[in-house]
Structures are given as structure tokens and as C-alpha cells.
Amino acid sequence: MNGRDLILSRVRAAIAGSPPPVTPTPAINRVWEGDREAMVERFLDRLRDYNVGVTRTSGTVAPALAGILAGRGIDRLAVPTDLPAEWRPDGVALVPDDNLPHGALNAIPGALTGAALAIAETGSIVLDGGAAQGRRALTLLPDYHLCVVRAEQLVGLVPEAIAALVPNRPITFCSGPSATADIELDRVVGVHGPRRLDVLFVG
Amino acid sequence: MSTNFPTRAADGLRNTQQRRNLAKATNTIRGKTAKVTAELPDWEALREAGKAIKREAHAKLDQYLLQLEEMVTKAGGHVHWAADAAEAREIIVRLTRQAGTDQVIKIKSMTTDEIELNPALEEAGIRPYETDLADMIVQMAKERPSHLLVPAIHKNRVEIRDLFRAEMGEHGTGLSDRPPDLTRAARAYLRQKFMETKVAISGANFAVAETGTVGVVESEGNGRMCLTLPQVLISIMGIEKVLPRFDDLSVFLQLLPRAATGERMNPYNSLWTGVHAGDGPCEFHLVLLDNGRSKILADEVARETLHCIRCSRCLNVCPVYERAGGHAYDSMYQGPIGAIVTPQLRGLEEAGSLPYASSLCGACHEVCPVKINIPQILVHLRGRVVREGHAGKGEALAMGVAARMFGNQGALDWSLWAGRLGQKLLMRDGTLPWLPPPLSGWTLSRDFPALPEQSFRDWWQKREDK
Ligand code: SF4
Question: Does the pTM of the predicted model rise above 0.90?
Fold first, then answer.
């Protein structure tokens, strides 16, 4: 018998005669109950908690981005090929990631992308390779990630995010920059991937 | 080699540095997890949901596995079935050879430890590089992990610095022992490996039958590196990790980080479905591992062992783990969950002393995010150890160790308490039909009067408290 048949037959024998499965408790689909502004505040607070640089604007995106980048001293960015025109900050060289070799991407100091959605309760940014996000390597190899989140992309809680995501895309949740506590439980931020994450919240 | 908890625990007890590290670690994590789990108004409902989903997944496990296979294949991935560790090793070695490489990068995975993959790769001339910081430390030191989540908790910064200096070539020269410096050295050393290695091997936290989506939850970003940069990705997963629906992820993505590290969300979660053109590996293999899991499934009392999501919260509240240390369990699964998983995976004959490695205080059951009744399973396994004739000196030794751990009065309370809890399950009509040896000789011919529900000391204590 091959492994597949063997495993299936063992599993079937193991569960035969057991009581039928309990009706599964519906996944807990709690939704955000506070008002919208409280949700935004929660999100920005959670980001600050993770040491993420937070900027909020209700105006045009490009100048706000230029300001953040000047503050970080970054003048060269890898960007997805479909970066919205109104996100192009002055004074910064933009390198479209047209399937750049990993080595080339690695040599660029930062990346600028949008997001699929964001979660207030956990301060997470969710990327799925959709519009203005590029492939996963783009937000992984450069040392710095600047992410634009629009107000209408924000949801309150994790179940709301899961319900809104398209399963067969490559999905990455980022909740602050990478971190480790492996050495004597001292928390060190920025292990692999971008060592710094900034978020521009629009709305 | 059999797992002898009592002897190993005695070693752990003598290691004061380790005990200090562990006390600090478990204390810190305990505080954090308590805070963030209390913060969710539906935490209890989430635990119930987690348990119900796992139960349902396991009750129809054959169907869900087949659905998973179908969906992964449809999305361009390949599914392999491994009945035991040897078969799993064989599959992974073959796939790696096919990719024409002699090195692989690995993401923290207890399952690859369980099947002893690294020695098999090395034997086949393939060099495995662990990329999780702690696993890398443990690998460089040629040791074993001592905690599910912080595997190198037994090592201090000076030891780690010396290790890196010896093993990391240029990246280790002149290194200080400050954790940020050590971390930076690891980053530089590993970046090169991430860029040049063609094959990555990972575990998986879950896989969704409905969509074929596989997920890895992590912290350092080494996971994203392994899941994204290589051409070939091989993920191995115990068959119990399948979830029926994509929606179920919302339950586990809330339970796991909060219970494990006390974070509202861990830094990175990656979800992928087969292969994604132009993004990430062009070849994806999912290895489904049984290796004793179907046997656990067949035991109606112990089957909920398989609900475990490896958050390690039970380790952090366990008084025995805190004193004895992870190495006492001689397994990649330590603490309370290790005490029930290991004997079931490796056999009671080999690891029959582990179900005794507990004070049965119940703390593990109280905190488990999927509500596994670990004490009940421990007692059930003790019963099996006895019935199947594997009871030896282990139990007596375990009592001896307990005495050293808790002091004499503590050990007495412990054994009486354990006795009362144990007998609840064995008792019929207020008497005990049988007892573990050495009392079993006596109960062979007559029933033993059950111990009173409350010990005299408990009773006295309660009376005093009033
Ligand atoms: S048994 Fe429960 S608490 Fe322990 S590791 Fe598993 S899920 Fe976590």
C-alpha cells in the first residue's frame, strides 16, 4: 500500500464509530463596534506600539511621502510597476520592480507600496500582491518599507480581514517590523526583512 | 534509547543558570499572554471555537485531507503522503536532490525535528541551514531545543557570542555579546544564504482544505525569506493541522499569537496557495505526515492531543517544566504537551515515564487556547502505561524528583492531589478497581477504598482561611 492509501485507511479506521462531528461553532465573526475614528485611532496606536513611524494626511499623498522619506534620508526606492501616479514623491529615484533580480532588489535601500487592507485591533498591514503592492520580494529585501494605507482599506478586527481577503493570492500580514526575543528574551527589532516600517495613513 | 524523565529532570534541577533563565522567561511570557488574552471580550468563545473547529476537522479528517490535496494540486502544488518519519525523509531528500542542490534553508519546524530530517539530509550530502535565530544557535551548538518557542532559552549571550565567533566566519569576527549586535551578525550571515539557496524546507501552522492555502506564522522574517526567495519550497505538515474553511483562520490567527508570545499579532503571517506566477517559488511541495498521528486519533480519550497549535503556553505555566527544563523531556515537544504527545508518538514503552512528569495541577488545561484537557490525558496515559505493562521504576523515580522539586510537604500534597484526580477517572462505585504498582498487587484481589475528596491538609487550610 502506498503512503496515501495507508494514511487514509488508518484515519478512517481511527474515526470509524466515533460520534458524528459536533456542529462547528461558527467562526467567531465579531465586528468592530466603536465608531470609525476610534478605529483609526486604535490602528495608529497599535502601529506606534510596534515602533512603526506613523503619518496621517487628509491631503495629497506625494508631498507627505516626500516628507517622510526626507526624514529618513532615503532618495531611492523600489516600487511596484503599477504605482499610482499621485504617489510619486519629488526628489526620489523610483526603480520599478519589473522582475528585478533578487540581488538588485537587495541593493535598493527601500520600497514603497500600498496594501490590500489593514487591521485596527492588531495594527497589521495585509499585502496580497494586488494593486500597488508588487510581489512579495519587493517588501522583503529592501531595508525599509513605506506603506500607504487608505482609510477605506481599514477594518476593525481579524475576522473582518479574513472575510475580505481573496484566498488564492499570496498573502502577507505585517505587524510591525520583524523581531526576535531569542537571546535572553531581550526584544530586538529588525531581524530579517525591512528593519524599518513607516505607514502613511490617508484619510 | 528510552526517554528517562526522572534522571534527566534531576540534571535540570542541578542547572541553576537554566532554572534562572527559565523562571525569567516563563514569568515574562505569562504576564504578557495573560494581559492580551484578557483584552479580547470573546477570548473564551474563541477558545471554544478553536476546539470545535479542530474536533470537526479531525472527525472528517480523511475527507478534509483529500480536499486539501485536490485544492493544492489545482493551484499548481504537489502533495506527498508520508506514513512515517522514514518515508517523509525519503521524499524530502529525493525532492531536494531533484532540484540539484547540496544545501537547503529551513524555517523553524518541530515536525522536521520530529522526523530527524537534518541528519538524513547530511547523510545524503545536503547541508541544512536553520534560519530561525534560536534554531540556528541550537544547531551551531549541536544541541537540542529546550522550549517550543524559545528553543535556545538555556543559553546566555556570552555563550552565543562565542558560538557565532567560532561558526560565522567574517560575520563573527570581533563580535560583542549585545543581543542587537548578535542579531545583526545573524542577519548578515543569513542574507547571503537566503539569496543563494534554491530549496527551502518549512513546516506549516495550518492548511485550509477548502482553498488549499498553507500558512506559516513567524516573527523574525526568516520565514518570509524562505517562503519567497528559493525556487523550490517543500513544506511538511502533520495531518492534524488541516482546517476545514478559510474563515477558520480568523479564529486561529487570534488564538495563536496571543497565547504564544502575548502579542496581538506576531510580526509576520504568510499564506500561500499552490504557486503564484511571478511571485515566489515556482515549485511547491506539501508533505502530509502521519507518523503516529492516526494512532492518537484512534484513542478517544487522548485524541484531542491533536488539537495542539504549538503555542507553548502550557510550558510557561507548568511548575514541573520550569524546574526541570526542556531537555528533561528528551524530545522536541516539551512541557505538558510534550508529556502527552511524546509517549503517544514514540510509544509508551520508550517514553512511559513522561506522563508522570506532571504535578497534575491543571494550569496547562486552564490556559490552553484550544482547551486540551492535558491532566485528563496524562492520567489516561498513566493508566495505559500500567495496563500495557510498561510501568517500571519511572514512576517511583518521578515521585522522588517531585520531592526534590517541591520539598517534602509539597511532594506529599502533590501525590495525594494527583492520586485524587487520577482516581476520579478510575473509580467505580466509590472504590478503585485497580491501582498502579506497587499497590496493584494488593488491588488484584480486593478493592482499595478511594481517597477522600479532600486531603486533611486541604481541609485544614480551607478551615483556617475562613
Ligand atoms: S497543548 Fe495547548 S497550551 Fe500547550 S502548546 Fe498545545 S495548544 Fe498550546
Answer: no
